[in-house]
TrEMBL record:
One GO term of the biological process aspect: L-methionine salvage from methylthioadenosine
Residues the record marks as site: Transition state stabilizer: 164
Binding-site positions, substrate: 53-55, 90, 203, 253-254
InterPro entries: IF-2B-related (IPR000649), IF-M1Pi (IPR005251), IF_2B-like_C (IPR042529), Initiation_fac_2B_a/b/d (IPR011559), M1Pi_N (IPR027363), NagB/RpiA_transferase-like (IPR037171)
NCBIfam families named among the record's database cross-references: eIF-2B_rel, PRK05720.1, salvage_mtnA
Keywords: Amino-acid biosynthesis, Isomerase, Methionine biosynthesis
Pfam family, one: IF-2B
Protein name: Methylthioribose-1-phosphate isomerase
GO function term, MF aspect, one: S-methyl-5-thioribose-1-phosphate isomerase activity
Catalytic activity: 5-(methylsulfanyl)-alpha-D-ribose 1-phosphate = 5-(methylsulfanyl)-D-ribulose 1-phosphate
Length: 366
């Protein structure tokens, strides 16, 4: 999407520098900084420190990490080591393992001397695939927004609510939950987006930055405001992203998503999840019981983070000394609370039947 009139992806390969460039998201929305990734440790740190974040983007970054490792040493041992090292960076988003597996499975069938070039091409392909998947999610989601818009008096905006950042920064381009919003805006359907701040890391600020850059009307709200807005008829549709969706359609996403889904159901508001197929974990049914939830440092809760007066990134303590912070980073919304899944192949029920109808080729894949 555009930043100050220039089109950017959230990462890209610079052929002159022969290296991957990422947008360092820790600095947004304060500063737009680009960072070159130079070592395997840089790749892992970028994911762990959330310079890159969002399930699809983590996956593509890891694929470039495998390509980097193959340049240094294309042996089987180095490939397995890189896989382990990158896989250990973050536990919840399945796209990470999906991309690492896809890369390793292909590389195992390639002679070591060709592995570096094959792995790099695969990473480029995954990046391009991600863009296309998200564009299609936008086209399918647009129809949901259009339908609601058509039921309203002319000129009245469709009011959407979203949680976290499932925007273009969380993918390679378009975003998942935001792609229908960008498509609706570009189709001149009036919309307004309620953007949850998404404590503790305030990914909502990234969403606000994105939507603002695209000229989309939005308001930044506290994480707890959504239920109130729904009770008062101010939300027409909720769309969130997902870090891992099970074969029966349970949705794991940023902490707080579950509460939004409960409030949406209580108020009869459609709750949709934008789901790229690499985010489906076909090996898991019960998301609550089976998906590993990342526990992050309690300091993210006891301190707020931002740009300091001296220009550095820093934190300010908001709790009494010694207070412990509890920081589960994701939760699971059971499929019964999900109205539908917006995928690149269309919209389906959050159920095994729904997903297997759209993805018959993937449902029983090894
Ligand atoms: O911890 P984050 O910022 O990586 O979490 C991101 C989310 O929860 C997104 O909603 C999810 O990855 C979907 S991104 C298209």
């Amino acid at each position: 999407m555009k930043v100050n009139g220039t089109h950017y992806r959230s990462l890209w390969w610079d052929a002159d520098k022969d290296a991957l460039q990422i947008i360092d998201q820790r600095w947004l929305p304060h500063e737009f900084r680009v960072l070159q990734v130079n070592s395997l440790k840089d790749f892992a740190d970028a994911i762990v420190e959330m310079r890159v974040r969002g399930a699809p983007l983590i996956g593509v970054t890891a694929a470039y990490g495998m390509a980097h490792a193959m340049r240094l040493d294309p042996s089987d041992a180095a490939m397995d080591q890189a896989w382990e090292y990158l896989d250990a960076t973050r536990p919840t988003a399945i796209n990470l393992r999906w991309a690492l597996n896809r890369s390793r499975n292909i590389l195992r069938g390639v002679t070591p001397k060709d592995r570096a070039s094959v792995a790099l091409k695969l990473a480029h392909d995954l990046a391009d695939e991600d863009v296309e998947i998200n564009r299609k999610i936008g086209i399918h989601g647009l129809e949901l927004i259009r339908k609601i818009s058509n039921s309203k008096p002319s000129g009245e905006p469709v009011r959407l609510l979203t949680h976290c950042n499932a925007g273009w920064l969380a993918t390679v381009d378009w975003g998942t939950a935001t792609s229908p919003m960008y498509h609706a805006h570009d189709a001149e359907i009036p919309i307004h987006v309620w953007v949850d701040e998404t404590r503790p890391r305030n990914q909502g600020a990234l969403t606000a930055w994105e939507l603002g850059s695209h000229g989309i009307s939005h308001s930044y709200i506290t994480d707890n405001a959504g239920g109130h807005l729904m009770q008062h008829g101010q939300v027409d549709l909720v769309i969130t992203g997902t870090d891992r969706t099970t074969r029966r359609g349970d949705v794991c996403n940023k902490i707080g998503t579950y509460l939004k889904a409960l409030a949406a159901q209580d108020n009869n508001i459609p709750f949709y999840v934008a789901l790229p197929s690499p985010t489906i974990d076909w090996s898991v049914d019960d998301g609550v019981a089976e998906i590993p939830i990342e526990e992050r440092s309690g300091v993210e809760i006891t301190h707020v983070q931002g740009k300091m007066a001296d220009g550095s990134l820093g934190t300010t303590q908001v709790t009494p000394d010694g207070t412990l912070g509890g920081n589960p980073a994701f939760d699971v919304t059971p499929n019964r609370l999900v109205t539908g899944l917006i995928t690149e192949r269309g919209v389906c029920d959050a159920s095994t039947e729904g997903l297997s109808t759209l993805f018959p080729d993937l449902v029983n894949a090894p």
